[in-house]
UniProtKB/TrEMBL annotation:
Gene Ontology molecular function: glutamine-fructose-6-phosphate transaminase (isomerizing) activity
UniProt-listed Enzyme Commission number(s): 2.6.1.16
Enzyme class: transferase
CDD domains for the chain: GFAT (cd00714), SIS_GlmS_GlmD_1 (cd05008), SIS_GlmS_GlmD_2 (cd05009)
Database matches in Pfam families: GATase_6, SIS
PANTHER family xref list: GLUCOSAMINE--FRUCTOSE-6-PHOSPHATE AMINOTRANSFERASE, ISOMERIZING (PTHR10937), GLUTAMINE--FRUCTOSE-6-PHOSPHATE TRANSAMINASE (ISOMERIZING) (PTHR10937:SF0)
Source species taxonomy: Bacteria, Pseudomonadati, Pseudomonadota, Gammaproteobacteria, Alteromonadales
Name used for this protein in its record: Glutamine--fructose-6-phosphate aminotransferase [isomerizing]
Keyword tags: Aminotransferase, Cytoplasm, Glutamine amidotransferase, Repeat, Transferase
All residue ranges annotated as the Glutamine amidotransferase type-2 domain in the record: 2-218
Residues annotated as domain SIS: 286-426, 455-596
Amino acid sequence: MCGIVGAVAERPVNKILVEGLKRLEYRGYDSAGVALLDGNTLNTVKAVGKVVNLENALDEAGVKGTTGIAHTRWATHGGVTKANAHPHISNSEIALVHNGIIENHASLREALKGDGYEFLSDTDTEVMVHLIHQLRQQHTTLLASVQAAVKQFDGAFGTVVFDKANDNEIIVARSGSPLVIGLGLGENFIASDQLALLPVTRTFIYLEEGDVARITRNSVEIFDVDGNAVEREVIESNITQDASGKGEYRHYMLKEIYEQPLAVRNTLEGRLNDDRVAIDAFGESAQQIFKDVKHVQIIACGTSYHSGMVARYWLEQFAGVSCNVEIASEFRYRQSFVHENSLLVTISQSGETADTLAALRLAKEQGYMGSMTICNVPGSSLVRESDLAFMTKAGAEIGVASTKAFTTQLVGLLMLTASIAQEKGLDQSTIVNAIKLLPAKLEETLLLADGIADLAEEFADKHHSLFLGRGSQYPIAMEGALKLKEISYIHAEAYAAGELKHGPLALIDADMPIIVVAPNNELLEKLKSNVEEVRARGGIIYVFADKDSHFESDETMRVINVNHVDDVIAPVVYTIPLQLLSYYVAVIKGTDVDQPRNLAKSVTVE
């Protein structure tokens, strides 16, 4: 959530900052702002709403600068107003932008008010800029002032600061919220995501936890949490796909749905050797860890949590290891039990999800035999801080509602299952052979789009819905419900179909559409009985069914037939129709598909 872009250069940086913010719009935000330094003149321009509003306001103001910071805000403390938008300024001298939450902001605010500082916003961020300004009177450099200030902040922050007394310097600090430095010739940059800087550089340095850095046009100095000068690895990015365009598609979400066969091919490329998974895809020490593992603890949030729930079925059935799956924000705040030879697996599209990252750091203190992440962003915090990492290679996902990140996570988890099975001497050829067929099966399933678009018309006046699945399809039903509520704003719940009689049947009527995922497996007959329970109570049912499962459309039931697939990959395949359904319903409802209200792509605060 939120986006940061900063630059220190010899040329005007206005357009660089605005373009960077546009490339971060997918993260979710509600206001935007920029602070520019031209010589010793500091100008700030802010706007509520889209970045284009800021761009227009900036053009109208006619200001420019060779040093600047820009921000897109997702409101946490204080409403959506210009006053609450970043950057925040102290005494017309110091400007600051911030991602994260300062948890002790109330006590800091009271102390600063007592010292005569006037607050113009309701944000937690404004205490940061005033405290740095106060400390600036006590220290000879802005760097030293920021280093002293961060010791007083409780919470998470990625922050960028400049002082109008020096137009060739910005100071950045990272604690729990990601920042990446972009290197140029006679100019340097900072951002919360490297995608923002791809038009100006392909050379990056990722800041580590606790780092503070001083960036000028010609130098970068980095200091660790103890104030020691350190070197961080310089990385050349090979990203070829970014937020540059939707191509022929109306929305990024639809584009990314159709990219899933290719994304899965990329995930599999070079990682299958005949009937085995190439175990080095997980890291150098994976073989020994997988051989010894007896239990897997999965930690994730949102869509990634659903992929972990599917993996529990796979790991216990095919690899013979027990598995728990927990929401990261719950795991980190309870006393948990660590099983013998337990592997911690985190799942995150961005690799920066705050609760998941905090859970990993907590788990490292609890005696897990190792940690592994399944992630889409090389160089992210989860990747750097885990013992093992499986990169999904899905490419940049711009739509807030995750699609290809989810399916490639499932593929990674299925490959993890096969790898553990093969290291324990178990037959995993069924998994590998099924995985090889996935890209083609996904392409076949995308051909259902026109029929699903027609079906979506029936949801135009609906306000509630119920999703049902059994076995490994239950988490897929949960993911389908999440997608529908995220982008169409229809209230949606998911249940294991066998739970209908334990309460949800009370909701059934002709105004409550029931969406069912029904592959042809050993649970099919049980599922058919659950469907009949709904029909007997007047419910209208929409079934995504294996074409050989013998569901028939009538006045109470609409059936979309899906080509038969092996049960092990069915969760991946049956995800596609539910994504398409949510997309077409959202289009009919007229919502902002790619940037749904109140949501953010990368959640870097609790």
